[in-house]
Amino acid sequence: MYELSVSQLVDGLCNGDFSSVELTQCFVDRMQKYSDLNAFITKLGERAILQASNADKLIKEKKHGPLTGLPIAHKDIFCMYGVKTSCGSKMLDNFSAPYNATIVEKLDQAGCVVLGKTNMDEFAMGSSNENSFYGLVKNPWNTDCVPGGSSGGSAAAVAARIVPLATGTDTGGSIRQPAALCGVTGLKPTYGRVSRYGMIAYASSLDQGGPFGKSAEDCAHMLQAMAGFDEKDSTSLDKAVPDYKQSLNGSVKDKVIGVPEEYFSEGLSADVKSVIEDAIKWYEQQGCEIKSINLPNTNLAIPAYYVIAPAECSSNLSRFDGVRYGYRCEDPKDLHDLYDRSRSEAFGDEVKRRIMIGTYALSSGYYDAYYLKAQQIRRLISEDFRKAFKQVDVILSPTTPEPAFKIGEKTADPVTMYLSDIYTISINLAGLPAMSLPCGFSRGLPIGMQLIGNYFEEDKLLNFAHQYQLDTDWHKNIPKNFK
Amino acid sequence: MPISPEEVLKIANLARLQIKQDEVEQYATDLSSIINLVEQMNEVDTKDILPMAHPLDVTQRLREDRVTEENQRNKFQSIAPSVEKGLYLVPKVIE
Q1: What is the pTM (predicted TM-score) of this model?
Q2: Apex A152 CA angle, A147 and A157, nearest 5
Q3: Hey, is the C-beta of B94 within 8 angstroms of any chain A C-beta?
Q4: Which of A41, A282, A380, B27 holds its CA 20 to 30 A away from the CA of A276?
């Protein structure tokens, strides 16, 4: 059952081939069996079985929704009413959310059964899931390696077939990079496509929630339920949501694919390069025109991001003050001590580093040199993409410069970790939609290709990805120890 | 431009973070390394380029000035560290 696609599972439930309770129990058992991966912070097995039993009633009464009875997992960054929502941090270890995030609400309405909250880098800051208060997550393909981050738990859970679908968030690559390292499909929507209400904020102008699945088709199901205008999110954009499942179909013949020269330079490892070139050849064989394009300001994306994101995070994380919720230090001497120690005792090192960089960049005398400059570079990067999309339908690139790295390999110097975001980060700065899907292996580790689309063209991306997945089976591989 | 240990303490104070004496050196090194990365931005001249705060240059959506939230104080205070008579308790601020 864990190998079936979302479409097959939904049909199976509706036709009575199996019940949601049976299906949910199967995944709950796998969640227990593979506890060592540490993909979950909170397991909701019992609650899930109750939800499943209600789902079965609805299906019997023919009152079900599009995803009724389907087990999913939520990244622990999404507020879930009455459930611990930790954001991977000691700061919220005692926090039980008093409301549902909009996407949690929407997926509830669609009928999903929630198996648990997945592990993540603390406050979404990280590219390896090594920054979690709850310990690191292991990559199911090789447990000495990282699953990627910050949505490492969700990616690992889908890869290990513990859940068919999981939610994630992406600020600098945190859906796409773990999807690539774990051999699953993940999509970051256009900024404003999916509501951020109830999604704990890291960098407000960059954050976007999105789906993880075994395939583009699976992701389409989840995105359909997640996308849409939300009054409660003032950055949510009021644009009609297409039928993503419909858009999967259709030939890509005669479409134009842009390949950015700057993404194929020295930083890219030979094994990834070769596998991506094979993927490009596949599209060419389908009748696509392959066009070399330039994104000249690519190398400025990481510097600009590591000003903008920390700056926004320093503001967003100022709400964690030990006063109204979350961690409070013992015996504060005075208010200053309350703030200082509550925050310092409960935030991890990476979070503190980014808050401090942000504070520095926004402080008097430095604002122009850093923050303003970064915002100008952001405009240049967006312009590069706008120009490119005048000539091409989608852009194809590697998702990461190399496959999953070993645990502990990049933790000595923070900058080393930052450099692994090189292909994903520009996309968040520009606010464009992008996805990662598996397209090969190297030394037993999956490799992902990235497809980047123009604003609100998630349907085009899903189409390109689905056509590839109809003809290839990289995405069907299951890690050896999880079959 | 590297960040000195004194600056680390100044920034920490602004950010309401407490950095222990034996950690200051490491933070200075790490933050300097990040600032070094960030200063690559100076490679390009951005004179006359309009800064971009939002990916689609959208401005803040406004709504009617009408009360739409109900008062849920008790519910929200049920998870607070310390409350009394509807007030959040903190150490004395005014001497």
Answers
A1: 0.97
A2: 90
A3: no
A4: A380
Looking at per-residue confidence, does B92 or A214 come out higher?
Answer: A214
Q: Is residue A36 part of a domain?
A: yes
Those of residues 359-378 in A touching chain B at CB distance below 8 A are: 359-361, 363, 370, 372-378
Using the beta-carbon criterion (under 8 Å), do B51 and A333 form an inter-chain contact? no
Residue A126 lies in a domain: yes
| A418/B41 touch (CB, cutoff 8 Å), yes or no | no
* Domains contained in chain B, number: 1
Instruction: Say how many domains are in chain A.
Output: 1
- The ipTM, to two decimals, is 0.95
Residue A318 confidence (pLDDT) above 70: yes
Instruction: Say if A478 falls within a structural domain.
Output: yes
CATH number of the domain bearing residue A469: 3.90.1300.10
CB burial of A102-125 (b: ≥16 within 10 Å; e: otherwise) equals bbbbbbbebbbbbbbbbbbbbbbb
The CA distances from residue A90 to A122, A213, A376, B81, in Å, are: 9, 29, 36, 15
Does residue B54 lie within any of the structural domains?
Answer: no
Reported as a single tens digit per residue, the pLDDT across A246-287 is 999 999 999 999 999 999 988 899 999 999 999 999 999 999
pLDDT at A210: 98
Q: What is the mean pLDDT of residues A440-461?
A: 98
CA angle A169, A171, A172 (to 5 degrees): 125
| Extended strands (E) in A276-348 | 289-293
What chain A residue is nearest to B92 in terms of C-alpha separation? A334
**Is B63 in the A-facing interface, judged by CB distances under 8 Å?**
yes
Residue to test with chain A: of B18, B19, B87, most A Cβ within 10 A: B18
CATH code of B33's domain: 1.10.20
**A449 domain-assigned:** no
Contact between A191 and B93 using a beta-carbon 8 Å cutoff:
no
**Contact (Cβ atoms closer than 8 angstroms) between residue A150 and residue A179:** no
Per-residue pLDDT, A413: 87
Question: How many CB contacts within 8 angstroms connect chain A with chain B?
Answer: 167
**Given CB atoms, is A196 within the 8 Å cutoff of chain B?**
no
Catalytic residues of A: 75, 150, 174
Strand segments (E) across A61-213: 71-75, 113-118, 165-170, 185-188, 208-213
Is the CB of A432 less than 8 angstroms away from the CB of B55?
Answer: yes
Residue-level pLDDT at B92: 85
Given a cut of 90, whether residue A364 has pLDDT beyond it is no
Q: Do A338 and B91 touch (CB under 8 A)?
A: yes
Residue B22's domain comprises 5-42
Mean pLDDT of A425-450: 98
Q: d(Cα A382, Cα A204) in Å, to the nearest integer?
A: 17
* Mean of the per-residue pLDDT values of chain B: 92
